Amino acid sequence: MDYDKLTGAMRRKGFRLTSARTQVCLVLCEADGYLGAYEIYNSLKARGVNVGVASVYRALSLLCEMNLVQQEEFGAGGEKFRLAQNTHTHQLICSGCGAATEFGECSMHNLARSLENSSGFKIHAHWLRFFGLCPNCQNKPAN
Ligand SMILES: [Zn+2]
Ligand SMILES: [Zn+2]
């Protein structure tokens, strides 16, 4: 997923490429991981781009609806966004600092197959996250 693909997909669906939409796409393309809406807003402000927080949110929700961007809930870190990935991963999320670690090895597929057999469902997705404390937070003295 890159900037041209994102803006191309919006244009094909008939969405205008407003400054908020294109700028949010740019920031997400440059980011290497998840960003919160306010992080995107601040990084735009730092570049002198005049886009309101509400517009950033609207652009993000449009991109999520189009499955171009993924949204994740990060416990203490709130909800964050990143470009949709082709690879299937799961996350370990620290409830202390909000840090997320991804692991790509998914062992749920056998379970999904057996659920399909027993329920008659055709399963096309699943969602799995682990919450806990990262090594850093475990070593922090409790206060
Ligand atoms: Zn932590
Ligand atoms: Zn999985």
How would you describe this protein?
It contains six helices and six strands. The protein has 143 residues and is α+β, with helices and mostly antiparallel strands. It folds into two domains: 1-86, Arc Repressor Mutant, subunit A, CATH 1.10.10.10; 87-143, 2-Layer Sandwich (Dna Ligase, domain 1), CATH 3.30.1490.190. Strand 2 (69-73) and strand 3 (79-83) form a beta hairpin. Helix 3 packs across helix 4. It is flat, with a radius of gyration of 18 Å. Bound molecules: zinc ion (2 copies). Residues 94, 96-97, 99, 133-134, 136-137 line the site of one zinc ion.
Radius of gyration: 18 Å
Q: What is the fourth-level CATH superfamily of the largest domain?
A: Winged helix-like DNA-binding domain superfamily/Winged helix DNA-binding domain
**CATH architecture annotation name of the largest domain:** Orthogonal Bundle
Tell me what portion of residues adopts beta-strand conformation. Answer: 15-25%
Number of strands: 6
Number of helices: 6
Largest sheet features = 3 strands, antiparallel
Compile the SSE list and pairings.
Layout lengths: L2 H10 L6 H12 L4 E2 H10 L6 H13 L3 E5 L5 E5 L6 E5 L5 E4 L5 H11 L9 E4 L2 H5 L4
Parallel strand pairs: 4-6
Antiparallel strand pairs: 1-3, 2-3, 4-5
Helix pairs in contact: 2-3, 3-4
